[in-house]
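Please decode residue identities from the backbone states below.
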């Protein structure tokens, strides 16, 4: 269901070169899946409150996309909705709905390969059958954009703005603050006629997050093991420096292969909230026999907690953009087949695991999904 979720992959590089409007495009998806851990909980031996709930899940989503000219520039607009309904009375808070939208507008500067513009994003997930849904949130963002296209396979996009995040189950994790991002795309090599290419994409991001909660301090002796009982609130407001760097290589030929590395550093003035995360990802997409297309994606994630693991997993270490997000090591396989110009079938299998944690709690989630995609 990733295509119906937010955010969509809406590119802005070279956007201002499009002269004509494009028609509205509609994508509708629906399907069912079996999920071994619908609440996405960690399990502790002998802990009844953290037992995994396995259940069937129904999904339905739709997305609208449009591109046109406005005030001498070009804009792209994407709107989407996604519902997730769990067939279990033990997991009513897992029945959630997500609405999202994104628009970007760029205007060329004096006929040069430079464009300036704005970007607006919004996402709101809410409960359907419970007062508060699991992991429901509201995420708002606005950026000023500057895009440079050298026309020789080198493109740079700069974005400066702000974010406001609200976590509905627990407002101590609400935050707001400025954000800055830079992305550089380079075509390293391209064959004559462009049948094959090798591209590099690098991204740097920074957010200064101010939380609606006090910073915590450690009252236990320095050599004592990290425990939740050591955390005591202070008179200071919690503030985090969120920093991220990505490096991604993409080979395009008969097979499309992408591999990348991401480093995330959260430096917090609150005890137990700092994090160093390493993610290594590789993905391959190819045409298969029987008019099938297949994609396999493997992600290895290792989290390090400079203060020790006070709370094994917390919402501040998640990156909420859609209902599919799962910040764990994973292996995912997708197979799709077009059955008509408008209809296609999709099968997805995935598993998530935790690695690199010497603690009692463990995370396991397995999923099998089948669905249809309609694009009129």
């Amino acid at each position: 269901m990733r295509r119906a979720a937010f955010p969509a992959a809406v590119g802005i590089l070279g956007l201002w070169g499009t002269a004509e409007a494009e028609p509205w495009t509609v994508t509708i998806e629906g399907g069912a899946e079996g999920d071994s851990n619908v609440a996405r909980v960690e399990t502790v031996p002998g802990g009844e409150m953290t037992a995994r709930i396995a259940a069937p899940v129904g999904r339905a989503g739709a997305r609208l996309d449009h591109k046109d000219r406005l005030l001498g520039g070009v804009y792209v607009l994407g709107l989407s909705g996604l519902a997730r309904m769990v067939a279990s009375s033990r997991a009513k808070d897992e029945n959630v709905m997500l609405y999202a939208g994104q628009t970007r507008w760029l205007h060329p500067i004096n006929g040069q390969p430079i464009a300036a513009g704005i970007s607006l994003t919004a996402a709101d997930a809410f409960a359907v059958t419970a007062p508060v849904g699991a992991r429901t949130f509201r995420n708002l963002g606005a950026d000023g954009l500057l895009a440079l296209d050298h026309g020789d396979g080198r493109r740079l996009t700069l974005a400066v703005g702000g974010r406001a995040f609200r976590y509905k189950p627990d407002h101590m994790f609400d935050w707001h603050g400025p954000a800055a991002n830079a992305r550089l795309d380079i075509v390293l090599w391209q064959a004559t006629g462009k049948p094959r290419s090798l591209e590099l994409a690098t991204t740097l991001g920074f957010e200064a997050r101010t939380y609606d909660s006090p910073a915590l301090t450690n009252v236990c002796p320095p050599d004592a093991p990290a425990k939740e009982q050591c955390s005591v609130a202070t008179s200071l407001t919690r503030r985090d420096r969120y920093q991220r760097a990505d490096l991604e290589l993409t080979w395009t030929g008969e097979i499309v292969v992408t591999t990348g590395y991401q480093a995330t550093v959260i430096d917090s003035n609150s005890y137990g909230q700092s994090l160093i995360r390493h993610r290594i990802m590789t993905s391959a997409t190819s045409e298969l026999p029987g008019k099938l297309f297949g994609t396999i994606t493997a992600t290895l994630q290792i989290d390090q907690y400079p203060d020790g693991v006070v709370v094994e997993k917390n919402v501040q270490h998640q990156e909420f953009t859609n209902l599919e997000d799962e910040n764990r090591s994973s292996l995912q396989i997708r197979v799709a087949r077009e059955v008509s110009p408008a209809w296609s079938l999709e099968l997805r299998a995935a598993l998530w695991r935790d690695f690199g944690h010497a603690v009692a709690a463990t995370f396991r989630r397995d999923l099998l999904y089948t669905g249809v995609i309609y694009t009129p």
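Observation: The CA atoms of residues 100 and 123 lie 4 Å apart.
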